[in-house]
Amino acid sequence: MKGARILLGVGGGIAAYKAAALTSTLVQRGAVVDVILTAEAERFISPLTFSSLTARPVYTSLWDAPERIPHIRLVREAQVALVVPATANLVAKLALGLADDLLTTALLAARIPLVVAPAMNEAMYENAATQEHLATLRARGFAIVDPERGYLAEGESGIGRLAPEERLIAAVERALTPQTLAGTRVAITAGPTREAFDPVRFVSNASTGATGVALAREAAKRGAAVTLILGPTLLAPPSGVSTVHVATAQEMHDAVLANAAGADIVIASAAVVDWRPGTPSPQKQKKGERSIDVRLEATPDVLAELAARKGKGFVVGFAAETDDHERSAREKMQRKHLDAIAVNDVRDGRGFGTGENALVLLWGESGRKDLGVASKETLAARLLDAIEELRK
Ligand code: CTP
């Protein structure tokens, strides 16, 4: 988002105050944001709020600007335009191509991706006119960020609340990213698994799922239809990704075979627990004994089973290794019939629960690409670049 040029149009609804928070987030991420307020938006929030956040002039009228035709310049300079909140009136104007103020004139002149986030009263949102206008905009290629169900300013609960900021940001990022994975189905496993020992205790590991979540977010940003099969983690699944929550290796196995078998790309980043207590106790074990014996049995190898049944899909595994890591990983890749494997060196606790990671991608007899040491987000982007390259 660094250096991205964004045109933000603010409509006249109570959610206009949330557009200020969104502007702050965009600016903090390095975007250059030009803001247009409609006359109705100015009743809810002041231009000064936005000029203070962006350190740029804020536009409110076709006629007051020092230049003659600001609307054309504003949309030409921007890479993406978003409307937050989009009132029912704005949605209708956009669908009909009406241009009676600075914002609607600028948007009619736009040849850039347009993101529209409606927010309004439930009855207005559900009105057939509004729904038809939204369908028209969708068909024209607008990205509509659907509102949520929840508390509305009228003091009642219903559908019509502005989408949360995370979804707005995801839509902007997607609009700014070349859709290199459009039409591609991507399945990703992520996180640890938990194998019950008794109803309150389990065997697990230190995986947070951060790498898989970053991969899912990045693939969705590139236009893929993403299914994330996610073990227990505190991380929120990314927006725009279909997430299946699982706990055990067996559940991950079943979910993967049900959801990932036809995928074009499968990335197994999960740290699946290799052994589970053979006979978990139905009751909580009492501490009485000073030591106890537990027999562990192997869990299913999710990735190996999936790779054995794969069709045309490109299957990438992960290998967390402490010794002779590239040789062990290449051996693992061959044994599990993978197309490629991403190795991380987890000596001295690296990789798990840390922000940064180091990855090397291996394929075939000797294919090798060092993806470097970077944040998990950056590595996710580099790994997908490499996978896209290998699939060509
Ligand atoms: N994996 C899996 N199911 C398992 C174990 C591993 O799907 N039961 C996947 C992981 O998601 C990863 C790859 O297999 O993509 C390698 O995982 P790793 O634990 O490093 O390999 P193992 O097969 O468990 O081999 P070992 O522990 O002996 O190194």
Can you characterise this structure?
This protein has 392 residues and is of the alpha/beta class. The chain is built from 14 helices and 20 strands. Strands 13-12-9-14-17-18-19-20 form an 8-stranded mixed β-sheet, with helices on both faces. It has a 6-stranded parallel β-sheet with strand order 3-2-1-4-5-6, with helices on both faces.
Provide tags for this entry:
single chain; 35% helix; 14 helices; Rossmann fold; 392 residues; 6-stranded parallel sheet; 2 domains; binds cytidine-5'-triphosphate; alpha/beta; 8-stranded mixed sheet
Outline? elongated
Do you know the CATH topology of the largest domain?
Rossmann fold
Distinct ligand kinds: cytidine-5'-triphosphate
Strand content: 25-35%
- Supply the CATH architecture of the largest domain: 3-Layer(aba) Sandwich
N-to-C CA distance: 27 Å
Rg for CA atoms: 25 Å
**DSSP summary, beta strand count:** 20
Q: Give the tally of structural domains.
A: 2
Let me know the largest β-sheet.
8 strands, mixed
Helical residues, percent: 25-40%
Q: Find the CATH superfamily of the largest domain.
A: CoaB-like
Secondary-structure-derived class:
alpha/beta
